[in-house]
Write a structure and sequence with these properties.
five-stranded mixed sheet; 205 residues; alpha/beta; 5 strands
Length: 205
């Protein structure tokens, strides 16, 4: 497909951005990288009235806008046979550059739009069902635990174990402690098991 230089003022953001959180520092790093070596992969747009809507590449668009470029390399898809929102979700999930929480939200949205089961969605994305199940389960974590995952201070595997605890305050406590101490998965799993057994013996002091 032909790549065109499209004026930024003609482009609209995706109707439902997948990233609930934009890492400002990471975005600045991307801007610096693009400034040094250029935009290696064009964004994907689709016509929407007299404007063009982003299908894939919202983060790259924001990085280029930070550089005050007048235009951005883009591929315009005029022959979309699927919902642009659905295509945007699929494109981003396949790129694997979403944080685990935004990925979980995207998976849920994909299932809502398509009516597909977790197993079917997993197959279409080349993943196993367990991966999708555990990702979606992260949305049951407390807001603080989700934030720790987004920041990268708590691995998603740890957060998944914490979702087995019903009390969000205990999730917060154990999640914060695990992030602070750099606790292993096995250790966190032990804490959760102890919590479920109404015992604090295996928990942090």
């Amino acid at each position: 497909m032909k790549v065109k230089n499209v004026p930024l003022n003609k482009i609209s953001p995706p109707p439902e951005p997948l990233r609930a959180h934009i890492d400002v520092e990471a975005l600045e790093e991307l801007s610096r990288s693009i400034e040094e070596v250029g935009l290696l992969e064009p964004i994907i747009l689709t016509p929407n009235g007299d404007r063009l809507t982003i299908v894939a590449g919202h983060r790259r668009f924001l990085a280029v806008r930070n550089l005050a470029w007048p235009t951005i390399p883009a591929i315009i898809r005029e022959d979309l046979e699927v919902d642009p929102i659905l295509l945007s979700i699929t494109e981003n999930l396949q790129r694997q550059d979403l944080n685990p929480i935004d990925e979980a939200r995207a998976l849920v949205k994909l299932m809502e739009l398509t009516g597909q089961s977790q197993e079917r969605v997993a197959t279409s994305l080349g993943k196993n069902r367990t991966y999708v199940t555990k990702r979606v389960a992260l949305l049951q974590a407390s807001p603080l635990v989700q934030e720790l995952v987004i920041k990268g201070t708590l691995p998603p595997s740890h957060a998944y174990e914490l979702t087995r605890i019903e009390d969000p305050q205990r999730q917060d406590y154990l999640g914060g402690y695990a992030a602070q101490m750099g606790a292993s998965y096995v250790t966190v799993k032990g804490w959760v098991t102890a919590e479920q057994n109404r015992s604090r013996e295996a928990g942090p002091p």
